[in-house]
Design a protein that fits this description.
This protein is mainly α. Helix content is 52%, strand content 5%.
């Protein structure tokens, strides 16, 4: 947070993190509206600042604003148009490196906001997320893009005839060894259509709990 120089910047970051930690977990508009009103009230009572003066439009933070930067700075994206161009550049780079699995995505603002959320979770220690949405809404594609942006390998099992406990456990071992022994950052992408055996979820639950 070396780039934060004003109190308003810190409060703006606080609002963003509260939304990521709490609001993103809500499942209906009523709860989200209640939380928004709470944040507005707390911003005034605790910091003596007006929410509308701090937040105009979408509030987005991330550490991917400058591709290839080292160290990565977690910063506020003030220029949304610039962010869209940066995200499109990431997508072009992804497609150049994955010619056989190109993703033709329309990166409108909602999609970019989802990518920034996933990036934040991936980069957090022991980060994990459950992405909800109808089939074809882009959950897998946005996760792959976020993993690429975070410079993580994306691993996914391939269900085939005869795929059972042995193959599943071998895939899990491969993924965990990559992270634990090789110390390589990796994302394990697992979709609902791949839950062909009940013990798949039991194993995933065990890994998350430990």
């Amino acid at each position: 947070m070396k780039s934060l120089t004003a109190t308003s910047d810190v409060v703006r970051l606080w609002i963003h993190e509260c939304n990521r930690v709490f609001s993103d977990r809500f499942i209906n508009d009523e709860d989200r509206a209640w939380f928004d009103n709470l944040i507005i009230a707390q911003t005034k009572s605790e910091f003596d600042m007006e929410y509308r003066d701090l937040v105009q439009g979408r509030l987005l933070f991330g550490d991917f604003g400058v591709p290839g930067a080292d160290p990565r700075l977690y910063q506020h994206f003030k220029d949304v148009d610039k962010l869209v161009k940066t995200m499109e550049e990431y997508l072009d780079d992804y497609n150049a490196e994955n010619a056989s699995k190109k993703m033709n995505l329309s990166l409108f603002l909602d999609a970019i906001e989802h990518v920034s959320r996933i990036c934040r979770i991936i980069r957090a220690p022991m980060g994990n997320a459950l992405l909800l949405g109808v089939g074809g809404s882009g959950r897998q594609s946005l996760t792959r893009l976020a993993a690429f942006i975070a410079d993580y390998k994306c691993f996914q099992i391939e269900i085939s005839k005869g795929y059972g406990k042995t193959e599943w456990r071998d895939d899990l071992k491969k993924c965990l060894k990559t992270a634990g022994i090789d110390n390589q950052p990796i994302v394990f992408l697992f979709t609902d259509t791949q839950i062909v055996k009940e013990f798949f979820m039991e194993d995933i639950n065990g890994i998350l709990n430990s």
